[in-house]
Amino acid sequence: MKDLSSLFSSDPRSQNILAGLVTVVYVKVVVGLCDYAVSHGILAPRISRKCIHIAAGAWIIWWPFFHPDHWTWRLNVLVPAVYTIQLFVKGFIIQNPNDTDVQTMTRTGNPKELLNGPILFTVIMTLVGLLQFRQKMGVVIMTCLGFGDGIAPLMGYYCPFGSYPTWPFGANDRKTLSGSMGFVVASVAGYFLTKFVIAQDEGTMAKQHDDDDKEWEMILQIATVAAITEGLCGQFDNPTIALSALLTYQLLDNTKPTSIHPIGV
Q1: 34, 54, 149, 216 — which has fewest CB within 10 A?
Q2: Which Gene Ontology terms cover its molecular function (predicted)?
């Protein structure tokens, strides 16, 4: 696939500013559609939250539109960086239970809940966008965190099977095997749907594997470890999923030194 960053403006800075604005529109449209669907009874709030969760993880689909030859490629994290500040203000200072973000991103309607999973998610998005821009590791992390962790609770709720305790092992702290299996399947599917964003140099590296079976094996192993992590870590699942995916990727990718620096730096 040809690198999309060479198909548009001859001015990398202007192109990156435009691409950054497109990511803002993307998120606003997704959130707006989910709000509309909930208010009109089309979607349950539970499903709406996870649609936003998955769409946020899939924000990497816009990476190829950023030109790495100018420092403004960092505008790919414009949305998660702004949302991190916004969630902090709304969860720590304003604390309005009627706020739209509170209603769409929390389970209980408590504004302080924004300071748990939602803000950790946006912080991780920001770090991945800065340190793993268009790299394979970044795609792996975001597909596990976005697709896998987005589908898991829905599978566990609508198709409950094999309930087991999760940390800190309270009476109501339980996950399901069906949710964990959904995590693995969604993570693998998400990876193959979004791996086109990997930069050409990273893509060439990936093709050095013997065949596609190696890639399937890689993402399946990482998704399985991340699913187990998600099942055991309760409310701290966002950072631990990202960390487990990162560490497992590094252990599996032992054919070359692992760099945390993005292209264009």
Answers
A1: 216
A2: ATP-dependent diacylglycerol kinase activity
